[in-house]
Amino acid sequence: MKFLTATSTGFYRRAIAVLAAVVMVATMLTVAGAPKAEAANRDWLRPDANGKCDWDPVKYWVQRCDVWSASMGRTVPVQIQPAKRGGNAALYLLDGLRATERTNAWVNDVNAARLYEPHNITLVMPIGGEASFYADWDGPAKYDLTDPVNYQWETFLTKELKGYLQRQFGVSPTNNSIAGLSMGGTAAITLAGKHRDQFRQTLSYSGYLATTIPGAQTLMRLALLDAGGFNLNAMYGSIISPRRFENDPFNQIENLRGADVYISAGSGIPSPSDANYPWNLALSGAALEAVALGSTRIWDTKARALGVNFTANYPATGIHNWNQFGSQLSKTKNRVLDVMNAW
Length: 343
Known about the structure:
The structure is a single chain. The chain has about 350 residues and is of the alpha/beta class. The chain has two domains: about 40 residues; about 290 residues, Rossmann fold (3-Layer(aba) Sandwich). It contains ten helices and nine strands. A nine-stranded mixed sheet has the order 1-2-3-5-4-6-7-8-9, sandwiched between helices. It is globular, with a radius of gyration of 25 Å. The termini are far apart. The N terminus is likely disordered.
């Protein structure tokens, strides 16, 4: 029988130590590797029209990208959160009437990026478009000739941005959902009806879904003027223009057969979460939500008569504010992920 010498004993100890270190490193890579792999689609900045996108202060992997729009003759900033694992589905989130040039309200007034951070869907949040209804306008949007505004939002969202998202973020041009609040809800239903090849799902949160019924154009005219002197006549031209009717969600119902459709509006009665809301904003919010509810129910009635499938949600309370919009975003998250297969 041979006995281990001091030299051989030292060799085996060193070998065991090296093996233990290798096992430890492998274990650490296994544990840490999964999150890093999932972040791989998110941890680098994509190219944009000005060179490279920037990290957005909202965090949650959101990039701010300047996308060139030939139709508008300028770059349009878009906040984009890439899908967690490189999935090809996207959710477009459209803003309300008072959209700003600073940020999309979906990551400012509520944090959609935080809500969808764990999931395999790209969030697409265009910035700007105040009072535009995300439409292609016939002429300068403002009465102020020193501040002409060229709105070609439909072209941008359905042609120009779509191509950019496919090239840089791997988003399929045919695997998209679109949602919006108020003005954005109106546009979400309209754009989904007109571009069924692009949008498989559409969601309206307190949108105005019957814009050509008697009185609706007057209300829109007043709203656009109040928002910043925008000229309703420049949107579609004549009040009898076919484009005005084509861009009414009420007239897109038939085109939505086969799509997943969700509509909602509150009652206009303040909820408990609105208790500390300023009284003047609560009054205007109640009135705006009541109008949204009325137009949404009109859309609902026609869709049922035509046999078009959809889901409606009418909370017993809720006014036209971010308590209402945010709650609907959370309520429909699982629906979006299910339909888009983006968990």
